[in-house]
Amino acid sequence: MIQKVIKRAKQELKYRIRKVIKPDVIEIDGVKLNINHPSITDNLRDFFYNESYEGQEVRVLEKVLDKNDRVFEIGAGIGFLSTYCAKKIESDKVVAYEANPQMIEKIKETYKLNNVNPTINNIILIDKNGEISFYLEKDFWSSSMIKRSENAKEIKTRTSNINNEIKKDDSNFLIIDIEGGKRV
Question: pTM for the full model?
Fold first, then answer.
């Protein structure tokens, strides 16, 4: 019980120090992240400062990801989970997809900062090849195939058949973390 209280106190102190210092680079679960980027809003920055960003997902990966797995991630975001996986099982066993073209350089930056090199694809995975409207929002996780606000900027993004991509990669571990991926 006392150990949990001490651990929680340390986490709270670390969070408060980060809020004051505002470091550009932090480390969460062994993954270094540059959080000084336009895609990282103040609201999102708090998740990084208190180390709750993708925390539940990492806890699952810690328990079930095996060195022989091949990971197929849909919705790479800033590249956190694909980086975590690449560090655990090797870069050549991880392929990631991200619909938002503005996030691709950020993902590559995360990979470089962590000395990993998973494959990243700027493609929306649906039932056919082609292109589709995608709506960019200020908060990257709000960008979607659905127009969520009047401020959303419409762009066209390439699509690929999800079944063909999964077969091509021969992955056995699927991570899906997408917002707005449902078709209307």
Answer: 0.88
